[in-house]
């Protein structure tokens, strides 16, 4: 069966994500429902950008919701997380615990950073699968999975309550602003993802974390992990996951065309499906940096 390729759109398309604090009406209801179903504390930029096209997002979420509430979906994204974290360990991230301690970080503060990482390590996985399914339906065709799906009962999200503070570009000082600009340049991103803005709550930590990741970002080994993550979610979308909501390629394309050109919506979807495997890889790398021992070879 045809699977989507990993493609970075060029030029980068315009995106129109509406921040949660500005959402109202139907969009606010979608935001709350998405966060409840995915068991995440934030609405991803990907789904905020989707919701700019209301007919499109309405049809997409109608069909995705029963899938996202299924055991098959939860097990798939949990397996994906384990796979990427195992692969990123092979890059040999250097532990930052000692250097943070030297700077004055108390164990409680370092643990708070770990907890924020845990939230993203869990929550990014459903978003990347959603992005792959969306692109598959727009570009490749229908999903091959059947309609039967056992519901997931209970909670899969981590039992963590942490302040969710985002350092927006207009909040940060020049030093952190320079880190943001470097991230966009090195990772070829048009914006700074939510994850990075949350980690920048601790500027001295984030500068160290990015400096370490920067050494491997874009290398063949790093790109291979991003590609492997993409390949797995592309397979899930095309062949593995069930389709209890009855999503169809034709219906989603028609919904997209009710809001804009199909090309415009497809390019927007392609952007997020391209960048999310990289984001997941990078958050996993940050996670290993917060381990007490070095994974770097020869250390």
Structural commentary:
With 299 residues, the chain is mainly α. It has one domain. The chain is 63% helix and 0% strand. The longest helix has 34 residues. The mean pLDDT is 95.
Strands, helices and their partners?
Elements lengths: L24 H14 L6 H6 L3 H15 L2 H19 L7 H7 L3 H34 L33 H14 L6 H6 L3 H12 L5 H21 L8 H11 L2 H28 L10
Helix pairs in contact: 1-3, 3-11, 4-6, 4-10, 4-12, 6-10, 6-11, 6-12, 7-9, 10-12
Terminal CA distance reads: 45 Å
What's the helical proportion of residues? 55-70%
**What is the general shape?**
globular
Question: Would you tell me the overall average pLDDT?
Answer: 95
Assign the structural class, choosing from mainly alpha, mainly beta, alpha/beta, alpha+beta, or little secondary structure.
Answer: mainly alpha
* SSE pattern, N- to C-terminal: HHHHHHHHHHHH
Query: Approximately what portion of the residues adopt beta-strand conformation?
Result: under 5%
Notable traits:
12 helices; mainly alpha; 299 residues; globular
Short summary of the structure?
The protein has helices at residues 25-38, 45-50, 54-68, 71-89, 97-103, 107-140, 174-187, 194-199, 203-214, 220-240, 249-259, 262-289. By secondary structure, the protein is an all-alpha fold.
């Amino acid at each position: 069966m045809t699977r989507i390729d990993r493609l970075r759109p060029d030029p980068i398309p315009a995106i129109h994500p509406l921040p949660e604090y500005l959402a109202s009406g139907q969009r606010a209801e979608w935001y709350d429902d998405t966060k409840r179903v995915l068991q995440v504390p934030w609405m991803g930029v990907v789904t905020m950008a989707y919701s700019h096209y209301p007919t499109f997002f309405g049809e997409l979420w109608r069909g995705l919701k029963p899938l996202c509430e299924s055991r098959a979906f939860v097990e798939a994204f949990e397996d994906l997380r384990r796979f990427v974290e195992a692969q990123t360990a092979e890059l040999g991230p250097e532990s930052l615990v000692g250097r943070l301690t030297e700077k004055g970080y108390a164990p409680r503060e370092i643990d708070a950073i770990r907890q924020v990482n845990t939230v993203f390590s869990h929550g990014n996985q459903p978003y990347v699968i959603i992005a792959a399914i969306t692109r598959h339906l727009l570009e490749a065709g229908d999903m091959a999975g059947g309609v039967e799906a056992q519901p997931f009962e209970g909670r899969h999200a981590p039992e963590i309550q942490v302040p969710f503070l985002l350092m927006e570009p207009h909040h940060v000082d020049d030093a952190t602003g320079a880190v943001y600009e470097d991230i966009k340049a090195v990772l070829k991103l048009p914006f700074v993802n939510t994850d990075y803005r949350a980690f920048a709550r601790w500027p001295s930590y984030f500068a160290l974390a990015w400096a370490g990741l920067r050494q491997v970002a874009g290398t063949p080994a790093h790109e291979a992990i991003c590609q492997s993550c993409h390949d797995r979610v592309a397979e899930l979308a095309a062949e593995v996951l069930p389709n209890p909501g009855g999503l169809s390629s034709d219906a989603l394309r028609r919904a997209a065309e009710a809001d804009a050109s199909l090309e415009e919506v497809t390019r927007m979807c392609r952007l997020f499906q391209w960048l999310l495997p990289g984001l997941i890889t990078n958050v996993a790398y940050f996670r290993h940096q917060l381990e007490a021992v070095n994974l770097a070879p020869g250390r």
